[in-house]
Amino acid sequence: MEDSHGGRPARRSARATSGNACSWALPTVLLCAYGFFCSVRPSEPFLTRYLLGTHKNLSETEVFNEIYPVWTYSYLALLFPVFLATDYLRYKPVVLLQGLSLIVTWFMLLYAQRLWAFQLLEFFYGMGTATDIAYYSYIYSVVDINLYQQVTSYCRSATLVGYTVGSVSGQVLVSVAGWSLFSLNVVSLTSISIAFATAWFLPMPQKSLFFHHFSSQRLSFEMKVMDCKNGAAVQDHPDVQRAPGWEDETKVPLNGEGHPAEKQKQKVDIAKVLKDLWQDFVQCYSSRTMLCWSVWWALSTCGYFQVINYAQGLWEMVLPSHNADIYNGAVEAASTLLGAVAVVVVGHMKTSWAVWGEVALALFSLLIAAAVYVMDTVHNIWVCYASYVIFRIIYMMLITIATFQIATNLSVERYALVFGVNTFIALGLQTLLTVIVVDASGLGLDIFTQFMIYASYFAVISLVFLVSGICSIVESCRRQEQVQSRSPESQ
User: Fold this and answer.
1) How far is CA 234 from CA 237, 299, 461, in A?
2) Beta-strand pair 223-227/251-253
3) What is the DSSP letter of 410?
4) SS3 for 261?
5) Residues 6+ apart with CB under 8 A from 144
6) Per-residue pLDDT tens for 394-420?
7) What sections of 64-221 are H helices per DSSP?
8) Where are the alpha helices (DSSP H) in 348-411?
């Protein structure tokens, strides 16, 4: 018998809530553990010193012009196949592939001796970087849509904390405990191996964004619309301004569940998926705002990758590590933490980015150019460190704004597509820059000349967006004047 207050249904509801909490908590905890241990790599801030030192005894030309460029080429070549394979294989196998790739990378870092072996090492590291998309997209296949923002913050925080712990511990072990860089690489390999073991316990997702989704027609009674501004699930409203095509693409089945008889997977049709991706691509980039922020994302990420890839090389040239103590780990940790603080501050800023966004991008890109220029011309290691911290803070702040502006009117599927395309374009530009400027088969320029080119690159980005921003503001003012001039006539 059911009591008058409906006690039994309440208890059933409580049990259901508890079950739902457990269903997303376990994979989230496991994935965060994986992300943390995968990011605890205390040897990474000292990689260039390790390769140039007595451990491997490689030359500057071999490291900067023949080994490091392989990472860029591998990342670019693997990104699109990995993007499709991640969704087709439903994330977990690719997460495992990432862990295995990083294990191979660090094992070879310990024992490789020949140039070709280090180039192969960079290929596996490129594979580990390209498969990073599986880590960040896995969680969306196993949690409800209204938990996306929450679990995304957990996953990103896990990698941030792991990277900080790795950088700080590496600096302490080198400066205080006097550990060798070989020992730091052993610690990194151990941490990555723990992450790889953790990934085996991740539950296998039953759905994915593109290839393995449930029929939207049969699940229409459970549809909700994702408000990408705050990650909450809300009902659609006719007055809300959305990007073209948003209404159809943002409807995602909540938890992919329905009645047992109605729960059916669509047949995997690769040609249809690719066609839909192309249509989404055309529709997304037809928006001027989307195009503007995406262009900045691609251009700046290209420059950012180049600077962080070769920053250790610049520091080594400014102050050779065999002559003095270096603090690369402390600098990486400081720039990461301060960048995270800047990201939090930006999240609470109330600014009309639609009007002032391009001008802001221009001004901050100019600051980035100035920071890179100072790193290159002022041959003082502390000035280099400070400029690098400023560079990373500004980039992390701007890329957060760009991410928010792009994601605001997009579904999860379209955001994944835009993110992938922007990253692919950034890597394409970086590959071109690497072939011309860095690679031994190209100009093979020295590290100081390279950084002068990177500073000029960001200055050009600043100029382009300044001109575009001024034009946008002038156009906006003209439209307002036209509206004001018409209003008296209508009265």
Assistant:
1) 9, 34, 38
2) antiparallel
3) -
4) helix
5) 20, 24, 233, 254, 255
6) 998 888 788 777 766 666 667 777 878
7) 68-88, 92-111, 115-130, 132-138, 148-175, 181-199
8) 353-377, 381-407
User: Exposed e or buried b for every residue in 316-348, given b needs 16+ CB within 10 A?
Assistant: bbbbebeeeebbbbbbbbbbbbebbebbeeeee
Give the other-Cβ count within 10 Å of 16's Cβ.
10
DSSP H stretches of helix in 176-267: 181-199, 246-249
Contact predicate 235/246, CB 8 Å: no
- CA-to-CA separations, 391 to 267, 324, 375, 456, in angstroms, rounded: 47, 24, 10, 14
Residue labelled with tokens 């990378």: 105
pLDDT of residue 268: 58
Q: Residue 437 gets which letter from DSSP?
A: I
* pLDDT for residue 420: 80
Task: Give the CA-trace dihedral at 350, 284, 431, 389, to 10 degrees.
Answer: 10
According to the model, what pLDDT value does residue 458 have?
A: 96
pLDDT band for 245, please (50, 70, 90 cuts).
very low
Distance from C-alpha of 115 to C-alpha of 71, rounded to nearest angstrom: 14
d(CA 297, CA 277): 20
Average pLDDT score, the chain: 79
For residues 442 and 315, the answer to whether their CB atoms sit within 8 Å is no
Please give the share of the chain, as a percent, with pLDDT higher than 70. 77
Whether residue 309 contacts residue 68, with contact meaning beta carbons closer than 8 Å, is answered with: yes
* Tens-digit pLDDT profile for residues 4-38: 444 444 444 444 444 555 577 888 899 999 999 99
Single pTM value for the model: 0.78
Written as one letter, the residue type at 121 is L
DSSP per-residue string spanning 464-483: HHHHHHHHHHHHHHHHHHHH
Which residue matches tokens 């024992």? 111
Please give the structure tokens belonging to residue 461. Answer: 């980005």
Cα distance between residue 130 and residue 400, in whole Å: 20
Is residue 275 classed exposed, middle or buried when 0-12, 13-18 and 19+ CB atoms within 10 A define those classes?
exposed
242-260 burial string, b = 16+ CB within 10 Å, else e?
ebebbeebbbbbebbebee
Strand stretches in 192-325, DSSP E? 223-227, 232-234, 251-253
Using alpha carbons, list the distances in angstroms from residue 294 to 182, 376, 442, 452. 41, 28, 29, 25
d(CA 322, CA 106): 23
Task: Give pLDDT tens digits for 248-295.
Answer: 333 333 333 444 434 444 455 677 777 777 777 777 777 777 888 889
List of residues 6+ apart from 278 with CB closer than 8 A: none
